[in-house]
Amino acid sequence: MFVFCDMSALYILKEGFNGIRRARLAAFTSITALTLAVFVIGVLARIGWNGYQVAQSLRSEIKMEVFLGEGDREAHRVIGRGLLALPIIAEANYISKDSASAIFKREFGAEGTPLTELDFLPASYRLTLKTDITADSVAGFLPTIRATRGVDDVSINMDLLIMIENRLETLAKTGGGIGLLILFVAVILVFNTIRLTIYAKKNMIRAMKLVGATNGFIRSPFLMEGLFQGLIASALAMIGVWILFERLMPDYINMVLEWPMGRWYYLTGGMVALALFMGFFGSHWAARTFIKNVTVGKS
User: Fold this and answer.
1) Is the pTM value of this prediction over 0.85?
2) In what order do the strands lie in the sheet with 89-95?
3) What is the dihedral of CA 112, 120, 129, 266, to 10 degrees?
4) Strand pairing report for 124-129 and 89-95
5) Region 54-78 average pLDDT
6) How far apart are the C-alpha atoms of 19 and 9, rounded to whole Å?
7) Rounded to 5 degrees, what angle do the CA atoms 14, 16, 22 make?
8) How do residues 184-205 score in pLDDT, each as one tens digit?
9) Over the range 244-264, which residues count as b (16 or more CB within 10 Å of their CB) and which as e?
């Protein structure tokens, strides 16, 4: 039993590799398409992550200023606790009237000193928004904050927040659309390669059916061929992405795009998984479609 299983596994591996060798032109076209698809998607993912990081950095610079009315420090603390309880707020920094005057002097220099003596700057809270909060959520809570007792006014650059959100949405939709189109074309080419291989081996498939081989066993080498194509394509695509971002871009564009933790783990794993999935899906689709149509006794 174990010997039979070992022989079956060796047969599937050998035939999967031989399938690429027999239909070299079709396999070359399929692997090239897969490589380009995974390469482009890897580049889009890398740039998309960098764009997301830039957007999050800009979002973190957007502060909500809540200006307070007259009141003692304890009253202001109560307002601060209420602001921190809001689901859109990550951090609240209290700025007293004296601190506000010092900040004004630092930013405007000697020219601002006479104005600070007028004691017109109110105490305030500078609020940091949570990074996963949308502009609509922030806009929805603004009336609540303005209606809080002891709050005189609220200031926030909503236009910038909406612009960042819209740009991120556009980037995601554009990248996703391009990626899906490329994936579809690549899978179709894998499908066509396996189809040609099946037609080339239809006499052998008939012979295997005559001796009792199941459709599942007959499909196995073709599925392995699709996985081999995906594995080769992922390796080539990863080399291309690495050369682009680690060699060409730093040297010629002077830009380095970082990935989480400064490593390639996530992108590499994603590209390999994507290439293997496309190779397997395309070959599985073709094998299920055409092997059952190869009937015994017909030429």
Assistant:
1) no
2) 89-95, 124-129, 63-68, 151-155
3) 10
4) antiparallel
5) 84
6) 15
7) 95
8) 887 887 787 777 777 777 777 7
9) ebeeeeeeeeeeebebeeeeb
